[in-house]
Amino acid sequence: MRRDADAALEVALGRLASLRGRRPFLVASDFDGTLSEIVVDPWGARVLPVAQRALRQLAALRGVHVVLLSGRTVTDLAARARVGGATYLGNFGLERASLARRGRAAAMRVVHDPELAPFTVEAEQVAGRVAAALPEPWLVVEPKGPSVAFHFRGASDGEAARLRVAEAIESADPGAVFRRYAGRRVIELRPPDAAGKGETIRRLVDELRPAGLVVLGDDRADAEMFLVLRERRATGALDGLAVGVHSHAEMPPDVAGAADVLLSSPRAAARLLGKLAGLLAG
Predict the structure, then answer these.
(1) CB 269 within 8 A of CB 37
(2) Domains assigned to the chain
C-alpha cells in the first residue's frame, strides 16, 4: 500500500516538473479532507502543519497565487489554515478575503455577494426547523449566511442519517427555495444560481490568467474544479495538474474520474505541496 502511495506521489511530482517555469502560477486547494484530516466533528478540523508550512512558502514566492476554496465561511477557513499572503474563498466562492502575512483572520475584510443577502433570514429559519425536527447529537448545523450545511459525520448509520436529514429538509423547505447539494455525510442548501466551486475557479482563472495551475480536492464539488482545469488545458490556455486526495475509505467516482492523479491521504497532499514549493522556488 505504501509503495502504491509513493508511486502516485512520484507520478504527480513528475507531472509538476514541467510546470516549474510557468508564471503566473495558481495553487488552489480545498480544506477539509485535503489540507486537514476528516474528523467526526467539523469544528475539530485542523490544518496539517506540513501543509501549512508548504502553503506559506508558496504564498511568499513571486508570481505564485495561493487560494483556499472551501464550503466553510471565509473567517472560519482563514482561522484554521492561517496562511498569510493567501486568498480565501469561502462558502464555495460566495465570500472572499485576503489574509496579510502575520495578519489575523478576525481582522480581514470579507466581501460577500450582495445579491444573495435576502436569503440569509430564510436560511436561518430553515436551519432552525431542521434542528428542531432532528434533535440528534450527530447533527451539526453550519449556518453560512445565505446558505446552510447539515453535517452527519457522527451518525453510526450514514445512509439512514442522510435519509432523515433529507426528509427534515423537505419539510423545512417544502417550496425548494434552496438548492440541495449532497457531499460526503453533508447536505448543503444554497440559493438558486449561487456559484459552485467550478464556476468560482473559472472566474478566478479568468481574473489571474495563470500559465500554471495545480488544484487539490477530495469531494464532488472539487471535481468541478478539476473539470475546469482540464477544459482550459485542452485549449492550450494553461497547463496544470488536478490532484484528488483520499480522505475516506472510498473516493467519490466524480473525483477519481476527473483527477489527473490520486494521492492516498491529506498527508501525501501536504508532501506534494512541500515539493511544489521547492520546485517553484528553483
Answers:
(1) no
(2) 2-113+195-281 (3.40.50.1000), 115-190 (3.90.1150)
Q: Residues 115-138: pLDDT tens digits?
A: 898 999 999 999 999 999 999 999
**Residues near 78 by Cβ (< 8 Å), separated by ≥ 6?**
68, 88, 97, 99, 105, 108
Quote the cell numbers at residue 143.
449556518
Instruction: Give the side-chain half-sphere CA count within 13 A for 238.
Output: 26
- Within 178-219, residue ranges assigned H as helices are 197-208
Describe the crossing of helices 119-133 and 158-172 by its angle, rounded to 10 degrees: 130
Q: What is the mean pLDDT of each run of 10 residues along the chain (282 residues)?
A: 64 87 95 92 92 97 97 94 95 92 86 90 96 96 94 92 97 95 90 91 96 94 95 94 82 86 93 95 88
- DSSP H or E segment with residue 280: helix 266-281
In the 8-state DSSP scheme, what is residue 192?
T
Q: Which residues, other chains included, contact 95 with Cβ-Cβ below 8 Å and sequence gap of 6+?
A: 73, 74, 88, 89, 110, 111, 112, 113, 145
How far apart CA 135 and CA 9 sit, in angstroms, is: 43
